Amino acid sequence: MSPSRQDLTTGPIGSTLLKFSLPVLGGNVLQSLNASVNAIWVGHYLGEAALTATSNANIILFFLLGVVFGVGIATTILVGQSVGRKDIAQARCVVGTGSVFFIVLSVIAAVLGYVFTPAIFVAMGTPIEAQPLAISYLRVIFIALPFMFFFSFVMMALRGAGDSRTPFYFMALSVLLDIVLNPVFIFGVGPLPPLGIAGSALATLIAQLVSLVAMLVFLVKRGHFLLPTRKELSVFKPKPALLRTLVAKGLPMGLQMVVISSSAIVMISLVNTYGTDTTAAYGVASQLWTYVQMPALALGAGVSSMAAQNVGAGLWNRVDRIATVGVGLNLVLTGALAVVLYVFNRHSLGIFLPDGTQAIAIAQHINLIVVWSFVAFGVTIVLFGVVRATGAVYAPLIILFISIWLIRLPVASLLQERFGADAIWWSFPLGAMVSLVLAAGYYRYGGWRNSRMAAGAPEPEKATPVAQAPETGMGMPAAAPAVPRQG
């Protein structure tokens, strides 16, 4: 394997997008597989209270990811646009400024999270029997947080440069280490004492740290073009103009994740009121949902990196065709996974929970209502991936806020008296359809093509029609696209 820069501004769009997105999809599969294997160990051997603890803790982790993740996305786009303009010096400056800022933010989040862990779970209404386990688990995760977040940052920067293979290789290493180390630390081996649920978190910490160090050593030895030379170490001194751009554009994108993750905290707080069985069922169903959403997430990352390079190169006709192909691939791939999950609903849930538990029947019911909505939400992910590549970051944030906080959560909360827990489950498809309609309207009629990540970006071609190219690169006629991860 060799770190490479892939030119995403030439060649057939369909095959180029698939070639770039497949390693991203593979990384998503590995991450979900890792989480699922960990859930199997915890659910089968430590009990439903432990599984409830990890479900609550993982939502907190996703929330914290949103605090700093927007800077990583902004870095990806700026790197992509710089590479599209063939300005490698600027790409290195972006990575230098972004990495310092990213590390500082992640350390602050880790320290605050560690201190306030008990208060967080009390505020969430985590079942009392699960709170000690959740605190033990999450505090170790907080120690690992800076390594986890910087690992993600480096991978996003590489993808912005067109290199999706290197992140996949080292994600695979991290997942392999985590899977192997989980039973070792949970149950103890030889002189190592059994650590229970904290051992699962410790395995994650070690796996992330080892993989991060290995990837950095690999990039240095191979002389990746994003790395500065010894004479260019000044790129790690934050540049005020770049920092302003990263904050101004990264904050709204990070807030998109905060909107989703904070709503997930509210949602699981509502679920917690129905007891451990329902919370465990919801946590297991959520594990399966990550698999259904993986193609859309991979395509969203792919179209964002691809569109960013083409925006940097001023190829606006090609940007519209990227959106068309991305939406079509999402409908096919996400739709196929949704069908598979419906067919194997009971069998897939049995992987995580022992037979005869009430949680399995509850989870089956949840899946029947929710799963199809991820096809619609996937379209939104793809289109938002395209529009954010130009620097249009506020409209997606507003759309997500409306669909989640003004539609999904009020429905889930206010209609429980009449419909019980079903109000929570039906709020998912309702919110997904609202986000799709709003995102489709913004993509078709909004002014995202006039947005800029930074000064100096090429202007859009005034005569560019919306998605009117005759060929998408996949043998499909171009069509006006209809229209980011719900959980």
UniProtKB/TrEMBL annotation:
Its main location: membrane. One of its GO terms (cellular component) is plasma membrane. Coiled coil: none annotated. InterPro entries: MATE_fam, MdtK-like, Membrane_Transporter-Flippase. It is found in: Cell inner membrane. One of its GO terms (molecular function) is xenobiotic transmembrane transporter activity. The keyword Ribosomal protein does not apply. It is a multi-pass membrane protein. Pfam families: MatE. Residues 459-487 are annotated as: Disordered. The chain crosses the membrane at residues 59-79, 100-124, 136-156, 168-189, 195-220, 241-268, 288-310, 322-344, 364-386, 393-411, 423-443. Residues 473-487 have a biased composition (Low complexity). This is Putative MATE family efflux protein.
